[in-house]
Automatic annotation (TrEMBL):
Protein name, per record: Aspartate-semialdehyde dehydrogenase
Record gene name: asd
Family statement drawn from the similarity comment of this UniProt entry: Belongs to the aspartate-semialdehyde dehydrogenase family.
SMART domains membership: Semialdhyde_dh
NCBIfam families cross-referenced by the UniProt entry: asd_EA, PRK08664.1
Domain spans labelled Semialdehyde dehydrogenase NAD-binding: 6-138
Amino acid sequence: MSEKLRVGLIGGTGMVGQRLAILLEDHPWFEVKVIAASRRSAGVTYEEAVKDRWKMAKAIPEALKTIVVKDGAEVEEISKEVDFVFCAVSLSKEKTKELEEAYAKHEVPVVSCNSANRMVKDVPMVIPEINGDHIEIIKSQRERLGTKKGFIAVKPNCSIQSYVPAISALREYNPKSILACTYQAISGAGKNFEDWPEMLDNVIPYIGGEEEKSENEPLKIWGQIKDGKIEDTSSPVITTQCIRVPVTDGHLAAVFVSFENKPSKEEIIKLWENFNIPEAVKNLPSAPKKFLHYFEEADRPQTKLDRNFENGMGISMGRLREDKVYDYKFVCLSHNTLRGAAGGAVLIAELLKAQGYL
């Protein structure tokens, strides 16, 4: 690739924006040219804007330190300087939706880390290894928006990306009911222990809006494109509980599942271990070499030990056994700010580029 695409980070000062900045440093296809945030952060360099709230273990990329932060609402100006944007803003759902559509209508593709457009019927919500073909709906979305290049694509909620890949590998056996209890890291709230000390030695059994997303978004991911819309699948029935726990990164899920056609334990593990990443995805720069991994050890996966599997882009499972109420139960793990947020968004952008949408 002779020239890198010019990227804008809208919401670049928050935790997901910071993670995007790190992931895009030296990316072979993309180069950050614009960083935007709220009006109160605009007008100073990126280094100045985040110096007191930088949450990454790795230092601020040198190439980004002197970029002057823009007001993300200045859509027309920013649109002239970028080929596409990542959006990770902290606005209300209505304002986020309005902002993302404004960029799209200015012919700037948007890869969103936000929830505002996830359930819009012609917006692809993508885990590339599972439903990358959903990006075909962009043609219908462009017709609705009246654009030639502009569109919105979104990544799913971070809470589902531990268990949805594991279940996706088993769909030939028709899962009919799922109970998933997720134990979610504080970085999912954009926090660390320094600015959220009340999470130390504590568990909070409520995360606003999370259970609704966790129960509904998988049905769209497993849905089908029909008549210019993505139609949700009607099964399985999913119920969840989402709990905040005192760990930095990594969402662990305890999953219970019943099938119309019950597979054997050996068949399940074989499907997980032999999961084939689609050809369109496997050679993308951020794609994991191995998407799913099953641990035979009784005490794995563990959040601290295993969240960085495949550079945080792989999914780990363990403790598969039969259950007295459901057919099977198991645990699974994903890195919430890599696979679940910024890394997942970068992988979507890579797929869009490879398929000619960027």
